[in-house]
Specification:
Shape: globular
Order of helices and strands: EHEHHEEE
Structural class: alpha/beta
Radius of gyration: 13 Å
Number of domains: 1
Helix content: 10-25%
Strand content: 15-25%
Number of strands: 5
């Protein structure tokens, strides 16, 4: 990515907790998290990202709400596939990366990572 999300106007700060949508192209380039000083606390794993992108908008919102419930401030992906629902996804600088800011949830609303 080269530039941190903070530098690209997404309001991410060192120490923030984020989530990511893993793709083959993001795995070797995860150095961006270290550069930004953020902590990746959850991810949609490589191989399952297609199920997320093919899900309807309400299902995607529910998944994003779960990630927010775990404490992630934003979800980062290396690219938006053709035909993806682009609502809420913001480009990060002059890269292929996108971020989707997450709204904080009320305590007790999110599922814990170990509950599934």
């Amino acid at each position: 990515m080269g530039r941190s999300p903070k530098a690209c106007g997404l309001g991410i700060h060192s120490g923030d907790r984020i989530s990511r949508i893993s793709t083959m192209s993001i795995a070797p380039r995860a150095y961006w998290a270290r550069l930004a000083g953020v902590r990746i606390i959850s991810a949609i794993p490589f191989g399952e990202e297609y199920a997320f992108w093919k899900a309807d908008a309400p299902a995607q919102r529910r998944i994003l709400q779960v990630l927010a419930g775990w404490g992630a401030k934003i979800v980062i992906t290396a690219e938006l596939p053709p035909g993806a629902n682009r609502q809420g996804w913001l480009p990060i600088g002059k890269t292929s990366f996108y971020g989707h800011p997450l709204l904080p949830r009320e305590p007790g609303e999110g599922e814990s990572p170990g509950s599934r």
